[in-house]
Design brief:
Blueprint lengths: L1 H26 L1 H31 L4 E3 L1 H23 L11 H16 L6 E3 L16 H15 L5 E5 L6 H13 L4 E7 L6 H12 L9 H13 L4 E9 L5 H4 L8 E7 L2 H6 L4 E4 L5 H12 L7 H13 L4 H11 L5 H13 L12 H9 L3 H10 L8 E2 H10 L9 H17 L4 E4 L5 E4 L2 H10 L1
């Protein structure tokens, strides 16, 4: 009994002695190891931050995506951070057996990550999936549009111009022109283009959130507007290239400084699109460009281009088609919508009937939209019962929503908007057919989200028309 107790006491004493040795060791040489770990971790953290920032800038163009090995490396650095923090917090309170060396273990992990970062053969790859909007925008038609682009371009390379306004009625092509400017600027390495869609549902905080999103930063909802604005100004100031911020579809004036947009010819420039010249004036755009409708020949060229080669326009059929184009009043959106509805139609009786229907369309609308709304209504009237149901359902989504195709078809089925089918696969096929029809007649636009998932969206004028019909 006594010998066993003595043995236990001896083992306990030996353990205590080992612990004291560890404490003494950590008081001297291990302190140097801790300082070395701290320095190496700081170096690794800075490197990870720089790589994340560089990768994010490349990804914002939509033409590049991060390599998998880079993404995995960044995640490993992030996962190691809590261990480092916990170790520093516990500090000298650690009491471990001699065989365990937490400092050495962390040192090894940090060293491996630093070594990995030195062997990256580039950080990004070409993004052939081309997330988001198509890289090459819709073709511009008309001398006026090309002239507007040529007049805007010098303003972007002139040292004293920091703000540009593009205005015109709905459907005239303001967004299309802005996308061309975006595309050509993105080809120049000295520019960083940021695109934000503002829309009718406007507030300073919502605009701040949208800008923060394209800058790759996060704003707290608990912060006041002024604090959020300071964070945005700080983010803009860190951009290495000349920033061109494009605000599309602005409906009302706002104070740039209140949002956190620091205009400067050599740091940050602004391009906005709006339906109102007054908005351009109140935001104090230095240059303002008015987009006009297409002339007769330009409208006809656009119609033929969007109609495609399926329909041969000759003789009386061509004359009727030209009369239909005249009813569009030179509005690109109206012309594109009509051409989409008539694509593949070859019977002259259908063309004559389409012209008569277009002439008799009359929906209540604002003066600015008096030309385009009847055209959109005409296209809607050419749909069958189930296609109309599905189309009107889409306007329940908020403005500028990018809606997943599969999600939308599932809702068509759930809401019983289509004719009955005896199985879900057959019902889904019907929904896909209707969705394809709405895209074909240009009442819905195809797009993609940041994950390259297929989605659809409504032009804001098309949505306004749908809401008024309901």
């Amino acid at each position: 009994m006594i010998p066993s107790v003595g043995k236990a006491l001896a083992e306990k004493a030996a353990g205590k002695m080992a612990e004291l040795i560890v404490v003494d060791y950590m008081g001297r040489s291990d302190m140097d190891n801790r300082q070395s770990l701290k320095r190496n971790w700081q170096e690794l953290s800075c490197k990870a931050s720089d790589i994340e920032e560089e990768v994010h800038r490349e990804e914002m163009s939509g033409k590049k995506k991060r390599k998998r090995e880079v993404d995995s490396w960044l995640k490993n650095v992030k996962n190691l951070s809590p261990e480092i923090d916990a170790f520093e917090t516990r500090g000298s309170s650690w009491r471990l057996p001699l065989k365990e060396d937490p400092v050495g273990k962390l040192q090894l992990q940090v060293k491996e990550l630093v070594d990995q970062s030195r062997h990256f053969d580039g950080l990004v790859l070409d993004n052939y999936d081309n997330i988001g909007e198509p890289c090459l925008p819709t073709k511009l038609f008309g001398v006026k549009f090309e002239a507007a682009k040529q007049r805007i371009w010098p303003c972007l390379v002139t040292d004293d111009i920091s703000s540009i306004g593009i205005y015109g009625m709905g459907g005239v092509g303001k967004t299309t022109l802005a996308k061309h400017i975006d595309y050509h600027l993105s080809e120049k390495p000295s520019y960083q283009v940021l695109w934000v869609t503002v829309s009718q549902d406007f507030s300073v905080t919502s605009l701040q959130d949208k800008i923060a999103n394209v800058l790759g930063i996060t704003l707290s909802n608990r912060d006041e507007e002024d604090a959020r604005a300071r964070i945005l100004r700080g983010a803009f100031s860190k951009m290495e290239r000349l920033v061109v911020l494009i605000l599309d579809d602005v409906w009302e004036e706002f104070c740039l400084d209140r949002v956190g947009i620091p205009l400067h010819p050599n740091k940050c420039r602004l391009i906005l699109t709006t339906r109102s010249r007054e908005v351009c004036d109140r935001i104090k755009c230095q240059r303002k460009f008015d987009l006009q409708t297409l002339d007769t020949d330009e409208a006809w060229d656009l119609f033929k281009y969007r109609l495609g080669s399926e329909t041969l326009l000759q003789g009386d059929l061509e004359n009727i088609a030209k009369s239909i184009v005249e009813e569009c009043g030179g509005l690109p959106l109206g012309i594109i919508t009509v051409a989409g509805s008539m694509r593949g139609v070859s019977n002259i009786c259908e063309w004559r009937n389409a012209l008569e229907q277009l002439k008799t369309c009359s929906i209540g609308y604002h003066e600015m939209e008096r030309d385009v709304f009847p055209i959109l209504e005409w296209s809607f009237n050419r749909l069958d019962k189930y296609e109309r149901n599905c189309f009107l359902y889409c306007c329940l989504y908020p403005e500028d929503s990018k809606i997943k195709k599969k999600e939308l078809i599932d809702l068509f089925i759930w809401a019983e908007l289509m004719s009955k089918r005896d199985s879900r696969p057959k019902a889904f096929d019907q929904g896909q057919t209707i969705l394809n029809k709405l895209i074909k007649v240009c009442l819905l636009e195809e797009t993609k989200d940041f994950k390259a998932d297929d989605r659809v969206k409504m032009h804001d004028l098309v949505r306004d028309m749908a809401i008024r019909i309901t």
